[in-house]
Amino acid sequence: MLVQLGYAAYYFLPFALRPETAPPAGPEADAEPVSILVCAHNELENLRRLLPLLLQQDYPAGFEIVLIDDRSGDDTYLYVQQLTQYYPNVRLVSVDKTPEGLSPKKYALTLGIKVARHPRLLFTDADCIPASNQWVRLMQRGFSRPADVVLGYSAYAEAPGFLNKLVRFETLLTGAQYLSFAWRGQPYMGVGRNLAYTQQCFRATKGFASHIRSLGGDDDLFVQDAVQQRQRVVVEAEPAAHTLSVPAETWQAWWRQKRRHLSAGRHYRLADRIRIGNFIGTNLLFYFTTLVLLFSRPDWVPLTALWGIRTSVICVAYAKLGQRLDDRLPVALLPVLDAVYFFYYLALGISLFLYRNLRWK
Questions:
Q1: Is 189 helix (H, G, I), strand (E, B) or coil?
Q2: What global pTM score does this model have?
Q3: Which of 6, 23, 108, 252 gives 20 to 30 Å between its CA and that of 97?
């Protein structure tokens, strides 16, 4: 309980209650053009929604959109080709085949980065949309602090049902960890749905070379390499700088998605694994201890008081984070989501330990 309260007091609450980041002063803040990279595999309908919103971004220095068509079997190629006729800042990179043994997405992203014209790179996924037309501007202002990597937040759209709330709770909790840790000077990951870094940073890490054969990790393992190369990492977490995605609609789809995401964790630095594992482990220990004590003969007054203090503080921290990140969940449901999530996380960990095979679309 003390460990969890320590995380809330040192990371989560100060991050949620921090003052808003002042806009960078001077014309140089918006002076650098940017390359926006989107990797797509059979994402035509999502691209029809995303690309018009990207073209409407308000960024005076200008930007290009590099769409990497990764072996799509739909009409992605024709659709983007039509756009290039009307918008000279839209460019198409086609991937016909991925070399044996390489991660398809990392290979496709590498090809896109090689043809990008601008030193600054901004990444999102085809199934995301920017939260506002200021997305590019806000994500780019992080480079003026200065920085080599800018971490953004990517939320999931609200929908009816308990699964949707659990997916959004997991996203909020993950965001709370990687954003607040980075804010405290301990960056360890980012999400490819909302991530920016420079060409120089990509070269410093030798691209995805250290994990090109791992299926996932084009975002979090890249940040791991960037930190090892002493690249500067900052956070841009204002709501207008977020992206929004459609969440998994079935438990099976979310299970597959989380298995892929968690599989990269074993490649993290030891200090990061300890920091994250300590938070996850103490939460699981808290709930297992609670269950054991419920069936023993404890002194109910201190047990209830401790459980109430821990749950109240943690839920207040999560509620404040939800307000700051504009990703609110029902406060009354937070204790239930917290308990369900950590047991679900334990099941995922056991599944990854027993069955390590993963597939890519």
A1: coil
A2: 0.91
A3: 252
